[in-house]
Protein: Probable imidazolonepropionase
Amino acid sequence: MLFCCLFAAHRDGCIKAVGPVDAIRRQFSETSFEKIIDCSGKCVLPGLVDAHTHPVWAGDRVHEFAMKLAGASYMDIHQAGGGIHFTVEHTQKTSEEELFNTFKHRLLRMIRAGTTLVECKSGYGLNLETELKMLRVIERAKRSLDISISSTYCGAHSVPKGKNVTEATDDIINNHLPKLKELDLSGEIHVNNIDVFCEKGVFDLNSTRRILQAGKDIGLQINFHGDELHPMKAAELGAELGAQAISHLEEISDEGIAAMAKAKCAAVLLPTTAYMLRLKQPQARKMLQEGVIVALGSDFNPNAYCFSMPMVMHLACVNMKMSMNEALAAATINAAYALGRSHTHGSIETGKQGDFIVVNSSRWEHLIYQFGGHQELIEYVIVKGKVV
Ligand code: NIG
Ligand code: FE
Structure:
């Protein structure tokens, strides 16, 4: 049966109806259609949702890729002052305009790979000045580009050089978060989520708890990095604090899985990072069986240089043993849920935002089956009813 969606880009960009072509044509006059796209023999899917990225930075780390291939671990490099610290040094020195321009270019590459809603973190500033510079860059993109953005304050991405964990935690709680609240009230920057890198040698469980709770107290959704390289009981903490989502989770405990399922806290799995760092794969099958809401993200950052959610779905299927249906749900409706946006994004339903991709194949599964070259397979990306 042929189905068709009608959307009104110049009104609110939302889907007006979904149904067979004939029924749609009876319901709406020809003049309701600004543009008609014939999708015969093709597949229409919801726009892809990328639930975890670090896309604002300067200073790539291709030299560290070579070090990792030669055997260095992520934490070896971090503790030697590289990794996040390297990117922080470069990001602090780079102008807001230059950061915006590279960020914009990255977002355009994400759109071409089918992403229509993306989570974007700060976290390469660490000091208040640079964290705000990154958040202003994200805010500017939110207001000016054809992609929806959920923004995340991630000032607790690493402990800045010259500070200990307690000093860094106090600085965030006493100085950064009150400033974010002030900027929200004045309408200058609106942040959606709060993040912490909860990891051995970075932010411990107690500091993580303090920061996340303080973020929640100013109205931010909790969405943080946990249980990646070491078991930290981050999943249990997130469930207790009412986190919307926790990312990574390669080292989650059985109790953590049960707690996340019960709390309806989404697990954002990041197959690019597990692949790049040759980590243990997250237990996607077990999480799905236990009823955890499993979402996917590209984790685009200088360590995992991947813009493509089709590639992420491919890795999730091959390395994490997800089915193609599970991967698509994880990269659409469940990723929207992880960002608190499943009422407006992530599926093709009347009233939701008109975000679609048109796949030039009669089998949508080609989006996952083919790895690489997705720009040719994705014929149209449509955001708020407009071809972008
Ligand atoms: O999600 N694990 C912490 N944060 C990022 C990596 C950031 C970086 O290495 O620059 C991640 O993989
Ligand atoms: Fe990350």
